[in-house]
Specification:
heterodimer; A: 165 residues; mainly alpha; B: 106 residues; 3 helices
Amino acid sequence: MMDILFLLLSSFAILGAMGMVSFHQPVHSALSLILTIMALAGLFALLSASFLFMVQIIIYAGAILTLFIFIIMFLNVKEANLPKEPNKNITLFLGSLALLPFNFLILRAFYKMPLHVNALESDFGKIKPLGMELFTQWLLPFELISLLLLVALIGAVVLGRKEEA
Amino acid sequence: MIANTLFAYIVVAMVLFSIGLLGVISRKNIFVIYMSIELMLNAINLIFVSLSRYHDDMGGQVMAMMVIAIAAAEAGVFLSLIIVLYRRKKSLDSDIFRTLSQKEAI
């Protein structure tokens, strides 16, 4: 059962990613990226990270990619404004050939990883232990992230305002 | 049996990361380049979560949450940057955005 789910989810993730790099229109790319994000959320659930499953769906698919599709529709890009990529398929093929040695290196590095044998305690990945971990051991990175979000907010406002004269 | 091995998750994450890298190096549309960066962040997230499951430690999941927060911040800045660039150049071609590197292209 878990195997079938895993195979389905991972094939959906990979198919969505391949569609994302090969579609011409950015809206189609964004929609297939949503498919990938959803499939990855399912993989997180298979890895018993139930809080991250929700975060992935709510924040990634719900906030970031929706904002993204909103911006694509807001810009109202015409076909003439899209970049012309006449030999896109050839560059994609050659690039994937060039990336093969890199993949082979990673496969060799991870090849001897053993199976999962340890049983987990029942609340692994739930929101309460994750919050305990976040607010005790990872308190300083958490605060730094909030500072980073503030900086990004100010940066987005400064970049996006209309220029005066 | 497959879903219990760490190796299967690593392979999926590796393929997703490679596709993202491929999108960054071989596409010109700046939206697709940004989405490929998001895809690479997601592949790294998958590796973090599967290693956290493997080591029975929540640190990996906390790290994945940090990566999601950073991706959200990046999305805001990057999208406002794209809006400014599109208003100036009326194009989404990443080869046109070279004001910083070549003088005549201003």
